[in-house]
């Protein structure tokens, strides 16, 4: 089987600190891979290595058939990346942002015009071509950022917390778009802290303290843990691994605050 | 290194510039402001300085000398007193800044073609005024002895004005604007490019757009060069623009080779761009970049010899001044613009400028490589 991402013993150290510790996994093409883990567990660092931006301290890997270390340039040319910051140029218009990334990826002019039209349509940005990106609301910005990430028809889409700070409706619309792209053959690597989003993924990897704890399909995870609630599974892992009662559930938190008082409403 | 990607960055940078009022103002209004500000306001020229006169000779010649002072724009005769003590009293009180005492026998000395003795008393509490007022007095008196007697008397007054002598040589009317303009050109070139480039990269960092850029095939070299091109152009346009304004407003003509001047301008531009880039790689926010820029620009203005003559600085301060490329560039600018000299006399400054530029570029490249991984 041909994998979109395949890494072996991937490790990154910053000085004495190990940010990513001996990661190995394979992601088949055309799947959505959800990468979960608490803050600071090493998700973004792993992504940077996969995208060929930082060199692993040790380990190896292939992305879209290209070597992580030797063919970083080819990898970059074939992935689309988007982060929670929606790194758009706010003082450039919608069209100028698309133009900029289009010509960074060296798309031919005629091709670019067509692609821009498609993406503006897809992102629902019609009529906003000449608005400054900074004046768009969160959901629009997010979709424009996705458009910029897709301008060069990447085969792998890397989304690092793409829906942070976006309202529930925009979140669903966004995932709708991603699902459609995957159906068309793209592979997606997504990190998220929303468990409902994680449940959409085909494969879920859980990273804790720089180490990959588990990687499996959501269905298998449900079976193993006897619950269909990914959030509970997530918390369970953290509890087990950190050896302490992390936090009580939201219900318990509320109950403890209200105490014996009767709820007035 | 892909040329098209580099130019894409350049094009984007121009759009940023076009939309950013602050950067535009720094690029095109600041040069004019600085030129006018430093040219007119920060002037050590003296105009209408109050002069008190004691004429102990009371002859046609002594009156002619007083007339000379009065008719110059530099002095304004506030009073004529009848003894020497009064002159001192006026200066002590601050009613006059300069006292002119013409002793008995002045006309006789002039006629005998002996160096006439005149005393000039200057209020030293404001050294800038004192120095220039003394120098002006010297020139006026010099001119006077020339017209009266035809003697090319060179030193009728012993004032010990080493700096003034040098200035008189190349800048006969002692207009400090003329002396300042070459320096201002250097400052403008430095400040604008350092500030603008410092901001250029930090902006991407602060807004997080660099995160996106590093995921694209753009290389750091393409990014740096692409970003620098607009500022090279702006720096160069400003350089020529200020040179032209200096001519139109202050009548400053380039006496030496314009080609040579432009060549050194480009070398200096590289060092300024590298300094800006260095700040950009170290600073994390625009505020930090601004502070760092001022931490470099302020001492460079004070220590380069732009305002204070470097010769009279304490040794340690003098050596610190040696660390700024602008110190050498100022010498080169003044040399080429005011004195019209060429490489044969400028080679020491040229070597220093090259060496410093080279070191700064090396440090910047080293730092930039480190921050990427
Ligand atoms: N360039 C760096 N130098 C030093 N430490 C770093 C560097 N980049 C990341 N780290 C550290 O590595 C650890 C993992 O960071 P990373 O950004 O990969 O976490 P993350 O899982 O993406 O977290 P989050 O959910 O908050 O985005 C953190 O402790 C971070 O401080
Ligand atoms: Mg992260």
From TrEMBL, chain A:
For this protein, the record's Gene3D superfamilies field holds: P-loop containing nucleotide triphosphate hydrolases (3.40.50.300)
Superkingdom of origin organism: Bacteria
PROSITE patterns referenced in this protein's UniProt entry, alphabetically: ABC_TRANSPORTER_1 (PS00211), ABC_TRANSPORTER_2 (PS50893)
- Keywords, sorted A to Z: ATP-binding, Nucleotide-binding
Query: For this UniProt entry, which segments traverse the membrane?
Result: none
GO molecular-function terms, A-Z:
ATP binding; ATP hydrolysis activity
Keyword Nucleotide-binding, does the record have it? Answer: yes
Pfam families attached to this UniProt entry: ABC_tran
Q: Which InterPro entries match?
A: AAA+_ATPase, ABC_transporter-like_ATP-bd, ABC_transporter-like_CS, P-loop_NTPase
SUPFAM superfamilies for this protein: P-loop containing nucleoside triphosphate hydrolases
Q: Which residues form the ABC transporter domain?
A: 5-234
Q: What is this protein identified as?
A: ABC-type MDR transport system, ATPase component
Give the organism, scientific name. Answer: Caloramator australicus RC3
TrEMBL record, chain B:
> What protein does this entry describe?
Transport permease protein
Record-linked Pfam families: ABC2_membrane_3
Q: Does the keyword Flavoprotein apply?
A: no
* Record-annotated ABC transmembrane type-2 domain positions: 133-371
Per the record, the major location class is: membrane
Protein's cellular compartments: Cell membrane
Instruction: Extract the GO molecular function terms from the UniProt entry.
Output: ABC-type transporter activity
Q: Quote a single Gene Ontology cellular component term.
A: ATP-binding cassette (ABC) transporter complex
Keywords of this entry:
Cell membrane, Membrane, Transmembrane, Transmembrane helix, Transport
Membrane topology type, per the record? Multi-pass membrane protein
Name the family the entry cites: Belongs to the ABC-2 integral membrane protein family.
Entry's transmembrane regions: 21-42, 179-202, 223-250, 256-280, 292-310, 316-333, 345-365
Keyword Cell membrane included in the entry's annotation: yes
Top-rank taxon of the source lineage equals: Bacteria
* Upper classification of the organism: Bacteria, Bacillati, Bacillota, Clostridia, Eubacteriales
């Amino acid at each position: 089987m041909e994998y979109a991402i395949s890494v072996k013993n991937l490790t990154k150290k910053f000085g004495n600190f190990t940010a990513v510790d001996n990661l190995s996994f394979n992601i088949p093409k055309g799947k959505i891979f959800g990468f979960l883990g608490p803050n600071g567990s090493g998700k973004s660092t792993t992504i940077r290595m996969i995208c060929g931006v930082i060199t692993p301290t040790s380990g190896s890997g292939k992305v879209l058939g290209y070597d992580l270390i030797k063919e970083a340039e080819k990898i970059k040319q074939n992935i689309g990346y988007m982060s929670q910051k929606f790194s758009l140029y706010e003082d450039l218009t919608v069209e100028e942002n698309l133009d900029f990334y289009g010509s960074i990826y060296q798309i031919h002019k005629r091709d670019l015009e067509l692609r821009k039209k498609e993406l503006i349509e897809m992102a629902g940005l019609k009529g906003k071509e000449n608005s400054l990106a900074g004046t768009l609301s969160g959901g629009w910005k997010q979709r424009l950022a996705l458009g910029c990430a897709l301008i060069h028809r990447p085969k792998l889409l890397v989304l690092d917390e793409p829906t942070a700070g976006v309202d529930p409706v925009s979140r669903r619309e966004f995932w709708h778009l991603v699902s459609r792209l995957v159906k068309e053959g793209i592979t997606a690597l997504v990190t998220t802290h929303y468990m409902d989003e994680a449940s959409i993924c085909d494969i879920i990897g859980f990273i804790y303290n720089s180490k990959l704890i588990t990687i499996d399909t959501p269905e298998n995870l449900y079976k193993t843990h006897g619950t269909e609630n990914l959030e509970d599974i997530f918390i369970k892992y953290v509890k087990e691994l950190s050896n302490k009662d992390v936090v009580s559930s939201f219900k318990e938190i509320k109950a403890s605050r209200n105490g014996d008082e009767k709820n007035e409403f | 290194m892909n040329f098209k990607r580099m130019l894409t960055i350049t094009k984007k940078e121009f759009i940023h510039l076009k939309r950013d009022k602050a950067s535009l103002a720094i690029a095109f209004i600041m040069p004019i402001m600085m030129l006018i500000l430093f040219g007119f306001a920060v002037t050590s020229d003296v105009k209408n300085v109050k002069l008190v006169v004691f004429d102990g000779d009371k002859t046609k010649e002594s009156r002619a000398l007083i007339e000379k002072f009065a008719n110059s724009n530099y002095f304004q005769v506030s009073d004529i007193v009848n003894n020497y003590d009064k002159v001192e009293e006026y200066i002590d009180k601050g009613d006059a800044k300069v006292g002119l005492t013409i002793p008995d026998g002045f006309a006789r000395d002039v006629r005998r073609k002996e160096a006439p003795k005149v005393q000039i008393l200057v209020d030293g509490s404001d050294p800038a005024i004192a120095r220039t007022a003394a120098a002006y007095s010297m020139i006026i008196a010099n001119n006077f002895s020339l017209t009266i007697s035809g003697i090319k008397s060179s030193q009728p007054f012993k004032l010990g004005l080493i700096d003034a002598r040098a200035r008189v040589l190349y800048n006969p009317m002692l207009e400090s604007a003329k002396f300042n303009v070459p320096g201002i050109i250097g400052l403008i070139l430095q400040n604008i490019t350092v500030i603008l480039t410092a901001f250029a990269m930090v902006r991407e960092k602060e807004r997080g757009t660099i995160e996106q850029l590093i995921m694209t095939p753009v290389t750091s070299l393409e990014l740096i060069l692409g970003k620098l091109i607009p500022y090279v152009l702006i720096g160069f346009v400003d350089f020529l623009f200020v040179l032209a304004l200096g001519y139109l407003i202050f009548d400053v003509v380039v006496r030496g080779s314009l080609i040579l001047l432009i060549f050194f301008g480009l070398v200096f531009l590289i060092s300024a761009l590298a300094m800006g880039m260095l700040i950009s790689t170290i600073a994390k926010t625009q505020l930090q970049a601004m502070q760092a820029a001022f931490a470099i620009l302020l001492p460079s203005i004070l220590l380069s010899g732009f305002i204070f003559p470097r010769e009279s600085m304490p040794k340690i301060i003098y050596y610190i001044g040696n660390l700024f490329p602008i110190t050498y560039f100022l010498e080169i600018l003044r040399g080429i613009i005011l004195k019209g000299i060429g490489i044969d006399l400028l080679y020491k400054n040229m070597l220093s400028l090259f060496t410093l530029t080279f070191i700064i570029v090396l440090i910047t490249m080293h730092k930039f490589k480190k921050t990427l991984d």
